[in-house]
Design a protein that fits this description.
9 strands; alpha/beta; 8 helices; single chain; 3 domains; four-stranded mixed β-sheet
């Protein structure tokens, strides 16, 4: 790939400058069929300044995906597709590259993917979230708990996995976003949906907890999908294989709040009875 400077090309056409060679650099690219060596040749020019001295100038480098990175954009796109679309772990991609004759270690590919994800999150994903908070009619969200393995150290013994939560936000049919947090708290939900002033469907925990900015939202609990049956209907069902009657399924119900005034009165009467004895 040859890169030239239009300004110096005009000077060359006018006879005020001349080409004296190229400044070459290489990157690792991908094309259908395998890896390619991408040669970037920047034209060097020799001209004369206002004081009559000979000056050598080189065509500036174009904007790169990652500064001073060996991978071309096609190689970054290939590794991201292999991992996230085809489900190949980095150690298998490393083995495939080694069989092709161009070994690339998994640590380097991991740093490339980390930079690509951070750049994508700060540009495209940030624009998606801003558009969802500003223009969406309804945002449905739910949290899923995940177990996070501890970082390996030289210390002996096994450490337990940490607990984390992933929030998924579905904004109408336009955007699907994911947010990670260590704890599923009302403060994080309020920070995640800060500035949103429309209908929001939250998890039961988030909808029953008071969090900052709640009066500006219309909170609706998520309705379970599927046919609903009463306890009597469940008790009358029979097993299709054996024909036996199933035991009624008891549903988990909330404990009723205690009647605090009545309990205080009973305690006072018990103390009076004790003093009389």
């Amino acid at each position: 790939m040859e890169l030239s400077d239009p300004l110096f090309d005009d000077l060359v056409a006018q006879g005020k400058a001349e080409r004296i060679g190229f400044e070459e650099s290489c990157k690792l690219a991908w094309q259908r069929g395998g890896m390619r060596r991408l040669l970037i040749a920047r034209v060097k020019y020799r001209t004369v300044d206002t004081q009559g001295r000979s000056v050598v100038e080189t065509t500036p480098m174009p904007v790169e995906t990652f500064a001073r990175s060996l991978a071309a954009p096609s190689m970054l796109a290939h590794i991201a597709t292999e991992k996230h679309c085809d489900g190949l772990p980095l150690h298998r991609i490393e083995d495939r590259f080694a069989r092709d004759g161009v070994p690339v270690d998994r640590g380097t590919m991991c740093r490339w993917l980390e930079d690509a994800g951070a750049t994508l999150g700060a540009t495209v994903v940030a624009a998606m979230k801003a558009d969802a908070l500003a223009r969406a009619f309804c945002i449905a969200t739910d949290a899923t708990g995940v177990a996070i393995q501890p970082i390996r150290t030289h210390e002996k013994g096994h450490k337990p996995c940490r607990r984390g939560h992933y929030f998924v936000l579905v904004a109408d049919r336009d955007h699907v976003l994911f947010e990670y947090t260590q704890k599923e708290t009302a403060a994080f939900v309020g920070q995640m949906l800060h500035g949103f002033r429309a209908t929001c469907r939250l998890t039961p925990r988030a909808s029953t907890t008071r969090w900052p900015g709640r009066p500006t939202l219309t909170i609706r609990k998520t309705i379970p999908i599927g046919p609903s049956r009463t306890r009597s209907d469940v008790g009358r069902t029979r097993d299709a294989s054996s024909g036996r009657r199933r035991s009624p399924v008891t549903r988990r119900t909330r404990r009723a709040r205690p009647d605090w005034p009545h309990l205080r009165a009973r305690c006072w009467l018990a103390r009076q009875a004790t003093f009389r004895k």
